[in-house]
Amino acid sequence: MKISAVVNTLNEESNIADCLESLNWVDEIVVVDMESDDKTKDIAYRYTKHVYNHKRVGYVEPARNFALSKTTGDWILVLDADERVPHPLAAKLIEIAEANQTNFVRIPRQNIIFNKWIEHSRWWPDHNIRFFKRNRVEWQNEIHSIPVTHGEGLTLDPKKELSITHFHYTSIDQYLTRLHRYTDIQSKALIEQGYKLDWPDLVTKPIAEFLSRFFAGQGYLDGLHGLALATLQAFSEFIVYLKVWQVQGFKTHAGQQFMDQFESLTNAKRKEFSFWMITTHLERTQGWFKRLLLKIRRKLLFVN
């Protein structure tokens, strides 16, 4: 039983050494570099002779399958350069490979964003299919796409010690840089699918993203980090649809009808905000009478 690990890179000289150090338990490391301008490849060669080139693309998925084709292991682990495998997780994956009773494994991921482990906001447990038998998993070319799997899989318990450590966004500048790249790709994908801008989406999509992360995803439990991330993710949604509008020629929407529709949208979303504010208040409130009043108040939001 042989385990291979693959890492795709692009200008990762600050990350790649720690990443590859955390893979010292595998039998083979394959690094596929996408035309780095820094010392990424030089550092990678210190840990493995299996370093290959791939043309630079805006995101990693198109290069995944190429990297997988260069491995020789019975089992394959996929890791990003800003990720690490802790010792307990390594031991668990070796155990799973030796038992040979599943085809792929969904591994939780501990996202460290702005120097904090984000435990809510839909960032945890963030299970990803990253460990699998050869030829049982393949990546699609779409950004952030879910890989195609074959056979039955296993999902690891959401425990910190059994999760990949992901040093995600380290600064606001880094977030905004990636936002520009990702929103370009996402807007183009929408257009290719035949989407025509419906301008209310500029209001409803970002707000839905914020509500989903900050309230439904309990981002408020992450404090200021949760608020910042929910707002940034909502802003990202807003930019996606603005870029669609741009490509489609900045079509004009104006007049009384526009304002009437905008007012209707904002009134509906204001009720949604109120619903979630009352709901989170309920979660923190003791006493049956106070809770009853809050429930009545929440129900009355949508009367008439």
Automatic annotation (TrEMBL):
Q: Which InterPro entries match?
A: Glyco_trans_2-like, Nucleotide-diphossugar_trans
Alphabetically ordered keywords of this record: Transferase
Q: Does the record's keyword annotation contain Transferase?
A: yes
- GO MF entries: transferase activity
Top-level taxonomic group:
Bacteria
Record-annotated Glycosyltransferase 2-like domain positions: 4-143
Q: Does the keyword Transferase apply?
A: yes
Task: Give one Pfam family.
Answer: Glycos_transf_2
Protein name, entry field? Glycosyl transferase family 2
Task: Give the species.
Answer: Candidatus Chazhemtobacterium aquaticus
Organism classification: Bacteria, Candidatus Chazhemtobacteraceae, Candidatus Chazhemtobacterium
